[in-house]
Amino acid sequence: MEKLKTIPVHIGIIMDGNGRWAEKRNLPRILGHKEGIEAVRRTVQASIKYNIKYLTLYSFSTENWKRPKEEIEFLFSLMEQNLKKEGENLNKNNVRVRFIGRIWELPSNLIEIINYVENLTKKNTGLNLIFAINYGGRTEIVDGIREIIKSGYRVEEINEELLSKFLYLSDVPDPDLIIRTSGEKRISNFLLWQSAYSEFYFTKVLWPDFDEKDFLKALLDYQRRKRKFGGIIEK
Ligand code: FPP
User: Fold this and answer.
1) CATH number of the structural domain 10-136+175-223
2) Within 13 Å of residue 119, how many CA atoms lie on the same side as its CB?
3) Closest ligand 1 atom to the C-alpha of 40?
4) Ligand 1 pocket, residue 33 CB under 6 Å
5) Phi and psi (nearest 5°) for 46?
6) Domain ranges of the chain
7) What is the distance between the alpha carbons of residues 34 and 78, in angstroms, rounded to a whole number?
8) Which end of the chain is more exposed for a tag (fewer CB within 10 A), N or C?
9) Which atom belonging to ligand 1 lies closest to the Cα atom of 86?
């Protein structure tokens, strides 16, 4: 088997296909999300195993509010229960859990557990597990610009470096690899600013079926890529 040489520092995942996974089995869509949690668990374990430093999971987008109220409520309660259940375990595994998005617009019990887990794990030095909840790439840029204006910067001072500092997590490096499951090939407003030079990996596997083997396939594909960042490859 091929050996892993270059490991991405930061992987972002657009977890897609929960609904289709359930529909294929004649189950309600929400059961696809429930099964999706198992794929989250497997992916976190695999990321620890392969020494990934940052893993960002697109869990709820600013556009997902268009879904039926029951589905949204189910998703939030699933997040709440699982963060409650797994918080200690993640902490024991030296995982630092963080969140990006307009967290302040979420239901108060979810905000409470988010603050608890973030605080509990804030000194951990292993995997940074970042959940994007009520997240939109455009919204993130708008929020950053608002903060810049509030801080009183002059027009001449505004540049890429400054805006990067005002995004949700300025200390996190840009994603090297973005994975999207379920066969769709779109960015869907995920890490728009940060993905300028990311490599993309698309797989037909539906998110609830995604496992360590699929994760490894993405890593192997990534290491065959030649990253140029707009330059040329040095010989
Ligand atoms: C996309 O499938 C999936 C989502 C919108 C939600 C994913 C969220 C989780 C698995 C929970 C994350 C967990 C925590 C603890 C924060 P889809 O419904 O768009 O599928 P479809 O395209 O087949 O309809």
Assistant:
1) 3.40.1180.10
2) 7
3) 10
4) yes
5) -65, -40
6) 10-136+175-223
7) 7
8) C
9) 15
